[in-house]
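To the structural biology subgroup,

Please find below the input and predicted structure for TonB-dependent receptor, which we are adding to the shared reference set this quarter. The sequence is reproduced verbatim from the submission form. If anyone notices a discrepancy with their own records, reply to this email rather than editing the shared folder directly, so we keep one authoritative version.
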Amino acid sequence: MRKISIIFLFLLSSMALKAQLFCSGTVLDSLSNKPLEGASVLVNYQGRNTGTKTDAEGKFRVELPYAENVIQIRYTGYVSEWIILQEGKSLIDAAIKLEEVSNRLEQVVVTSKGFDQNVRKPVLGANSINIKTLEKLPSAFGEIDLFRSIQMLPGVTSVGEASNGVNIRGGTTDQNLILIDDTPVFNPTHMFGLFSVTPPDAVRNLDLYKGNVPARYGGRAASVMDIALQNPDVTKFRVKGGLSLISEKLMVNAPIVKDKAAIYVAGRGSYHDFLLPFIDSDLEAIKATFGEGVAKGFWRINDKNTLTATGYVNQDFFQTNLLTNLPNVVGTTTYFEHNTVNAIGKFTHVINNQMDVQLSAMVADYRPTIATRELDTNNPIQLKSGVRQRQIKASTYYQNQKHKTEFGAVLTNYQINPGTLDPGASTSVNFIQTPQEQGNEWAAFVDEEFSVSSKLALTAGLRYSLFQNLGAANVRSYREGQPRDDFSVIESVDYQDGELVKSYRGFEPRFGLRYSIQEGTSVKLGYNLMRQYLQIVSNTTTPIPTSRWKTSDTHIKPQVSHLVTAGLYKNFPQGVYEATIEGYYRFTNNIIDYKPGADFLLQMYPETQLVQGVSKAYGIETMISKKKGVMTGWLNYTFARTFNKVSEAADITELVNGGDWYAANYDRPHSFNSSVEFSVDKHNSFSFNFVYNTGRPYTEPVGFVNYLNSLYPFYDQRNNKRVPDYHRLDFSWNIMNPSMRDKRWKGNFAFSVYNLYARKNVYSVFFRTENNLTKAYRLHIFKIPVVSLAYNFTFE
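Predicted structure (tokenized):
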């Protein structure tokens, strides 16, 4: 009996020991040994993160499951540390020192959401890019460019160097939801696609979702680019800035109440258009400026409540001596101007270590303008348009060792001005106002991520959205079987301001599964359905800043995208190499296309210029990256195709390509990207980028018609030819803190060469008739190497 009691007590003590495993310690700054309050301590168990935050003295204590534990310690502005504890082991009173990102030698490469998360998490097609990675990549004119950089990832392309956005897995540019601190950006580039609109010094990281998109995101059919801005530093005053051949930038961070509240202001401006003729003599008459700015405040009210507020603005001005295409206007010069004004406020209440609630309110305003001056009077004539989006959102987040749950509700209001022609004092041009559009989008969502076993993990999301197209509006009815035009109108109905015109609704399920084959290797499967109620209508290869935004209505149905993804993921020992291969198939209903000869400018009834069809896209993406060592980087190859079909038009004249499949404007079957960095020492690194893409399609006339002694092109098949293949090599040399010692003032130089071997890549092919002779012309953006030098500094 005594032996049995001893055995029983031994078993009880063993069980108690298992329940009492924990990790405790203090998180410190590696240089000053200052405690870091609010650092996150996360325990990764079966693909799940649970944990706590450090207190005012930097101390923490967290219980551990009885298993091999992966613990991450992270703090904004510092390099994360990882600790791996064997099964049954605790870690007590550890002193964990974090190094500031600016002091780190080793490059932070593109990752799949953290240590081993590309293998562990049941999520496909998710990438995260750290701003420190972007700073080391070669760039045009020395400007850090988010959108040019993400084109180095598999599945992300564009139609060329002057494209106003990117195409992701067969999606159009307007099918990407682009967020800066949770506010939408309707035009993501400056100077017609040459530069991104994000303030580089304020950016923390970019999360790209092109496979499994969390249910908290909605409103677009292809992908999400979530650009997170840094939070203000409540501990110290800091100034950052830089100079390049194109722009100047400055960021000032100032604590208001130490350890409680802080604010920063960051901005960038470019007034160096005098350099354009050195790139191409044809650019001599062009005047161009751009800029953006952000202000962000943070207030830790108490241990349970925080408040943040962000304001963001950007502005572009571009003037050319080309004649305007405004109706009934003969002008001298034309200028394009557009600006964005966004603002958001967030309140977060922490209920406990596992649960918090967040409330937010947001407004986003985008206002583009085309203008010219009359020849005789010099009177300005302006075509103005705009989009305003307002949103309120409430969400709750909960996590424990096995589950991670987020749920909430969102109300979004859209107001659109499709176009207003303001003639000013002109007597020859009339005032024109196209009908204003508005709509409400209601949505509720829930995301759940959980582990079934050590080998199987799932993520499941469900979003329900309801869109209401609202008046005032005049809605036409057209004769069935006839083209939608002024001659087939049966009747029209007027709706009052705010009256419901048309509504659409539906569920948007999101699903992901991960099965671990062995340690460091897994397979995944995912499905995504997304609905889009707001889109661009344009007949250009890539939308321009003044392209028209359009809500879904009686005649224009919302786009609905179905995406199936499968992949194999492998991490090699010591975490040096990481490899992935993903395949996908996307089918989208109700894509927007245009009739032959369509004209959207000041169009009162845009449905008369549009047709809707379907799109299919499929591809295989492969990527291998090296994450540690003197040489780091990645290379990837993508095979992808995208086709559209318009076969159910009301009349045969509205069919595109006779109702057959045709390649989309951005269909580029083969893409290869390589980015390599050599870290020579703490102060010098060299980077190379190589890019190759199949040439994009364009439409070439099959003949010419002679009418009144003038030749006019005759088109048969859309996108029947391709421009030559695109390839480019870039180089950069980064010199960090060249004074060779650490001090309050830290500076670095970035020397880069864009298009190193002077490849004359063709952006587009167009046809021009002169002296009754039609010729094909090629447009190049960068025909020579672009050499740049930038200097960046930090003072604190």
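Summary notes: The chain has a mean pLDDT of 85. The chain has two domains: 17-99, 117-795.

Regards,
Lab coordination
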